[in-house]
Amino acid sequence: MASNPLMQFLQPQANGPRLPNNPLAFAAEFRKFAAGMTPQKAEEQVRQMLADGRMTQQQFDALKQQAQDLAQFWR
């Protein structure tokens, strides 16, 4: 599964892939990631992150609320 370029930007890792410094290239990378993401793949990834401790339930709940709040602007 491709990694989310936005998460790479927000949480850079020394041994991880370098993100483009160009906003258009970054947007292209994100579109490529988003094209391969489905609700089922997203749910699977969240389950994995909760199971292996990369994300807590509280973090998930906060992100879910933020997503719901932002979704109001896209409708």
What report would you give on this structure?
The protein is mainly α and 75 residues long. It has two domains: 37 residues, no CATH class; 37 residues, no CATH class. Helix content is 68%, strand content 0%.
Structure characteristics:
2 domains, 75 residues, mainly alpha, 4 helices, 0% strand
Mean pLDDT: 80
User: Helices and strands: which structural class?
Assistant: mainly alpha
How many discrete structural domains?
Answer: 2
Number of strands: 0
- DSSP strand content: under 5%
Radius of gyration: 14 Å
Number of helices: 4
Mass-distribution shape: globular
How is this fold's topology laid out?
Blueprint: H1 5-10, H2 23-36, H3 39-51, H4 57-74
